[in-house]
């Protein structure tokens, strides 16, 4: 069993989907977890309860991820409470439809603000705490769309592609401080982000059949690789893009 005893983690978008599964798994491994959420306090509160049942401390942190001032205050409060931050999982994100040639600028801007600016704001605020402690683990949650692109979701793919470049750049920049920066790039995952499209049984089956392993994974299947990347089993891994897609995209990041 991987152990994270004594580690302090921040999961953005931690109230649902991959973030929720990751928060619970890290707590199971012994970490205390700060759960960032934007609106759904009830869902975040349920994650907090489950973490506390595991004997770990959980903090609820509400913030608009695309607002630098709210993010910086959130990280300040967490850092002051624990005196350190060891693990950051940049998971919060949105996925919306956007046809180029007919895409409102606000749709493009919103996607970049949440999926890319938010990652910058949180990481920029957390890194000083990691440098102070002379260690850290950062995992960015991207997408296979970053590797192969995604028609009618080019704004989403672009935001996630930038995340890959950021991961590789920070891996080298932060290595002297013993901070490892990696990325997981999931394919289709059975989360509420996909609830609307998966409501069509024919489409869901089409997606399942397109995956070589013939399954649409639950969020827990992404949380496991994240746990590995923030553990001592991955001490010599940094700048890696780990594609978690059941064989859908067979290429490196």
Plain-language structure description:
With 253 residues, the chain is α/β, with parallel strands linked by helices. The chain has a single domain, classed as Rossmann fold. 47% of the residues lie in helices and 15% in strands. It contains 9 helices and 7 strands; from the N terminus they run E-H-E-H-E-H-E-H-E-H-H-E-H-H-H-E. The chain has a 7-stranded parallel sheet, sandwiched between helices. Helix 1 packs across helix 9. The longest helix is centred in the middle third of the chain and has 29 residues.
Which features would summarize this protein structure in a list?
253 residues; alpha/beta; Rossmann fold; seven-stranded parallel β-sheet; 7 strands; globular
**Topology order in helix (H) and strand (E) letters:** EHEHEHEHEHHEHHHE
Q: What is the C-alpha radius of gyration, as a whole number of Å?
A: 17 Å
Oligomeric category: single chain
Q: What is the total domain count?
A: 1
Shape, per Cα inertia axes: globular
First-to-last CA distance:
28 Å
Query: Within the largest sheet, what's the order of strands?
Result: 3-2-1-4-5-6-7
| CATH third-tier fold name | Rossmann fold
Structural class: alpha/beta
What CATH architecture label applies? 3-Layer(aba) Sandwich
- Low-confidence segments, ≥5 residues, pLDDT <50? none
Question: What is the assigned CATH homologous superfamily?
Answer: NAD(P)-binding Rossmann-like Domain
Helix content: 40-55%
Strand content: 5-15%
Mean pLDDT: 95
């Amino acid at each position: 069993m991987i152990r994270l005893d004594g580690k302090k983690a921040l999961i953005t978008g931690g109230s649902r989907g991959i973030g929720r599964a990751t928060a619970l798994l890290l707590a199971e491994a012994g970490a205390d977890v700060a759960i960032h959420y934007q609106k759904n306090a009830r869902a975040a509160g349920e994650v907090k309860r489950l973490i506390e049942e595991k004997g770990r401390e959980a903090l609820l942190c509400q913030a608009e991820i695309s607002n630098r001032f709210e993010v910086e205050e959130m990280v300040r409060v967490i850092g002051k409470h624990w005196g350190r931050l060891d693990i950051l999982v940049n998971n919060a994100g949105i996925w919306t439809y956007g046809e180029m040639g007919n895409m409102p600028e606000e749709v493009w801007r919103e996607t970049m603000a949440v999926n890319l600016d938010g990652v910058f704001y949180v990481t920029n605020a957390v890194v000083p705490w990691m440098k102070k402690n002379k260690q850290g683990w950062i995992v960015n949650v991207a997408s296979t769309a970053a590797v192969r692109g995604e028609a009618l979701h080019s704004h989403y793919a672009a935001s996630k592609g930038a995340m890959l470049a950021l991961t590789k750049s920070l891996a080298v920049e932060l290595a002297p401080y013993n901070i490892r920066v990696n990325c997981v790039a999931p394919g289709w995952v059975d989360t509420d982000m996909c609830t609307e499209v998966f409501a069509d049984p024919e489409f869901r089956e089409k997606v399942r059949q397109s995956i070589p392993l013939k399954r649409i994974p639950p969020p827990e299947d992404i949380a496991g690789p994240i746990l590995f990347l923030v553990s001592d089993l991955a001490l010599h891994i940094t700048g890696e893009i780990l594609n978690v897609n059941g064989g859908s995209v067979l290429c490196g990041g």
